[in-house]
Amino acid sequence: MVTVDAFSAHADASELVDWAVATEPPRTAYLVHGEPDWARTLADRSCAEHGWPAVVPTDGERVLLQRLRRAKGSRGSRHP
Q1: How far apart, in whole angstroms, are the C-alpha atoms of residue 6 and residue 18?
Q2: How far apart are CA 70 and CA 76, in angstroms?
Q3: DSSP 33
Q4: In the Cβ-directed half-sphere of 24, how many Cα atoms lie within 13 Å?
Q5: Do 47 and 54 contact (CB within 8 A), yes or no?
Q6: Cα gap 38→31, rounded to integer Å
Q7: Which residue, 10, 56, 68, 74, is most buried by CB atoms nearer than 10 A?
Q8: Spatial separation of the C-alpha atoms in residues 34 and 31, rounded to whole Å
Q9: How far is CA 69 from its chain centroid?
């Protein structure tokens, strides 16, 4: 999990995609904010335009995350 201090919750879909493509591509993107239909649309767009696997977890769904090592100087901070 990565925390990025420069994230704005007020970005529209295009701004979120622009922000995301400026970072290292994710193995999988989990879209957990906003209305489910909107999140699914953004997940489909992320996959179609950038080849990123993106999912919208269901309410209460749990996902096991594997901790990855980051290179020194990479953006964001990890949480256990």
Answers
A1: 13
A2: 10
A3: S
A4: 9
A5: yes
A6: 10
A7: 56
A8: 8
A9: 18
pTM for this predicted structure: 0.59
**pLDDT confidence tier of residue 77, bands split at 50, 70 and 90:** very low
Of 74, 76, 3, 14, the residue nearest 50 (C-alpha): 14
* Nearest in space to 46 (alpha carbons), one of 67, 60, 27, 62: 27
Q: How many angstroms separate the CA atoms of 17 and 46, rounded?
A: 7
Q: Which tens digits make up the pLDDT trace of 28-66?
A: 888 887 888 988 988 898 888 888 888 899 989 998 888
Q: Which of 14, 73, 18, 57 shows the shortest CA–CA distance to 65?
A: 57
List residues bridging with 78 in a β-sheet: 2
In sequence order, the 6+-apart residues with CB closer than 8 A to the CB of 58 are none
Q: What angle do CA 70, 44, 54 make, to 5 degrees?
A: 25
Domain ranges in the chain are: 2-78
